[in-house]
Amino acid sequence: MAALTARSPQNFAALCSQVLQWPTATSQNPLSHFRVMLTHPATKYRSFAPIQFTQRTWPDRQLTHPPIWLSTDLRDGNQALAQPMSLDQKQRLFKLLVEIGFKEIEVGFPSASQTEFDFVRSLIDQNLIPDDVTIQVLTQSREHLIQRTFQALQGAKRAIVHVYNATAPHFRRIVFGKTQAETIELATAAAQLIKDLAAQQPGTDWRFQYSPEVFTATELDFAKSVCDAVLDIWQPPAGLDLADRKVIINLPASVEVSMPNVFADQVEWMHRNLKHRDRLVLSVHNHNDRGTATAAAELGQLAGADRVEGCLFGNGERTGNVDLVTLAMNLYTQGIHPGLDFSKLDAIAAVVKDCTQLPIHPRHPYVGELVHTAFSGSHQDAIKKGFAVQDPDGIWEVPYLPMDPADIGRSYEAVVRVNSQSGKGGMAFLLERDYGLALPRGLQIEFGQVVQQAMDAQHFQSSGREMSSADLWGLFEQHYLQPGVADEAAWQYCSHRLEPLGQQGDEQCIWTTLQYQGQVIERQGQGNGPIAAFVNALDLPIQVQAFEERSLTAGRGAEAIAYVQLREAATGKTCYGVGIHRNIVTASLLAVISGVNQLEQAATTLTV
Question: How far apart are CA 284 and CA 48, in angstroms?
Fold first, then answer.
């Protein structure tokens, strides 16, 4: 491991040469030659020291309103792309951000390249910036870069100049070789130059932003000192509302180095101790190195931050910026409108993917293809029951769905999908939604076993397929409906005629024509209703255990459906039959025939 700490280019080249000569891993253990994780990582990595801050109040607060949002998709997000966006893609994404509702958008680093400079100019020269939108640009604390930045912004109506310099101790020591005093001097010189250049362009409504880079790894007292020194130069005016304040102090977690509660302590300490706190906007800029950027940004707001910088869907350097879609929708599902419009989230995602050429993970919060989808049988059953009782004007309470997919432009098509892990609830949900079949619970259980057998069959196992609602309907038709499964040997209904018996008409007589084993059979029976009369006419050892009838609710016009549960007297075996017809009596008789055929196919003792 000593070689891994080598600093010189020669040593690094030698190390690379050694790595290239390592033998390949064995097929039995593909990692056998690459075990470099330490048994005792504390010998290499230092735990982040806790903040000694007993006056914290953020744990007792809750979010009640959205922050000021700043999108940095066109700057931090763009510089993190393997292939940065073209001018056309940038303009498309800028337009999208405006449509979503962002009022502050970081559009680039105009001193970094001619491409960045030209994009900022295109927004200004082509008058693409709405009057209520403020563009922000980034610059390092270097004179020629700041000069170039102001050239890019000439003629802008409203602009934020965002300047930063490295303040964290390892940056001061390793990268720049500067003392704390020299670091403060660099920041204040940049702040003064920005103030002077802004005064030369009075036609622009200027705002200034400073970031101590990397705030999360900077000593708190030094972070305060350098920010205070910048504030002394900029002298933010008093008495302005939050939205009109001219100075922003941004606290970047450019590298996430601690748990989010520690970040919240850092933010609240700055919130309580910064000079001119009531005259400035306190902002946070979280990255996701530890996978907790969302939590850190939310806790940062509890700790006093007024503003959040981030990217749509978490784009950005390394592990990405905090995901503004997730933050905004988290507020929405707590009953707080985020001030951003994600009601067409799939369309937004399509534009972002096209502009960035980055995919969005199917499990990504809110927008992922599968985030509103349940495959698990118990989950599907709970969702089905939740939809059945959900008040369309009431509080959303559907189990396993923290929000209504319709609120972000999603249909219910993908809420439930059936695979080998699914159960009766999912199957029943799809059949009711797409075919109007409201199956009795007993039939759900029975048909669920049929579905599971089909999912276990070679056809689905080998292809790894899901079972669509069309697949389910086909299976249901094949298994239950006449004449779908009826071969020439099975029972088939042909016709019937009913007549009342007696003065009250309580009894009914039925004459029916059937086909069985290729032979036409005429039968007559009577009973206290059409079904009883029909069962008596069949003269089979069966009993009707349950009967339901209802109108089909989707796609079948005026047709009715009947469900009959039959019990075989000799064995006690039960099964369901189903019939569909425009006439409810005919549908009921078809259901009885369907059930009889199910019992016969199960090799029972039924005989004519």
Answer: 19
SS3 564: strand
Phi, psi values for residue 223, rounded to 5°: -60, -40
User: Cβ distance 491 to 515 under 8 Å?
Assistant: yes
How remote is the C-alpha of 16 from its chain's centroid?
40
Q: Indicate the residue type of 102.
A: F
Q: How far is CA 529 from CA 333, 534, 546, in A?
A: 53, 9, 14
Query: Across residues 471-483, what is the average pLDDT?
Result: 83
Cα separation, 95 vs 87, in Å, equals 12
**553 near 544, Cβ under 8 Å?**
no
C-alpha–C-alpha distance, residues 136 and 505, integer Å: 85
94 with 356: CB under 8 angstroms? Answer: no
Indicate if the pLDDT at residue 292 is higher than 90.
yes
Report CA torsion sign: 112, 115, 116, 122: positive
What is the average pLDDT across 365-386? 81
Give me the pLDDT at residue 470, please. 87
Look up residue 351 and give its amino acid.
V
Answer yes or no: are the C-beta atoms of 408 and 366 closer than 8 Å: yes
pLDDT interval class at 81 (50, 70, 90): very high
Bond before 483 cis per omega within 30 degrees:
yes
DSSP tag of 2: G
- Map residue 210 onto helix, strand or coil: strand
> Coil, strand, or helix at residue 542?
strand
Rounded to whole angstroms, how far apart are CA atoms 226 and 168? 11
**Model confidence over 256-278: pLDDT tens digits?**
999 999 999 999 999 999 999 99
Domains, the chain, in order of start with CATH, read: 66-356 (3.20.20.70), 377-480 (no CATH), 492-601 (3.30.160.270)
Dig out the tokens for 551 from the structure: 């109108």
β-strand 247-253 against 280-286: which pairing, if any? parallel
pLDDT tens-place string over residues 364-373: 999 988 888 7
Tokens of 420: 């080998």
Tokens 């300047």 belong to residue? 163
Phi, psi of 341, rounded to the nearest 5 degrees: -105, 105
Residue 336 has phi, psi (to 5 degrees) of -115, 120
User: Which two three-digit tokens encode residue 531?
Assistant: 């079904």
| Model pLDDT for residues 393-409, shown as the tens digit of each residue | 999 999 989 999 999 99
386 vs 399: CA distance, rounded Å: 6
436 token code pair: 């109007």
Residue 348 burial (C-beta neighbours within 10 Å; 0-12, 13-18, 19+):
buried
pTM greater than 0.90: no
Neighbours of 243 (CB within 10 A): 9
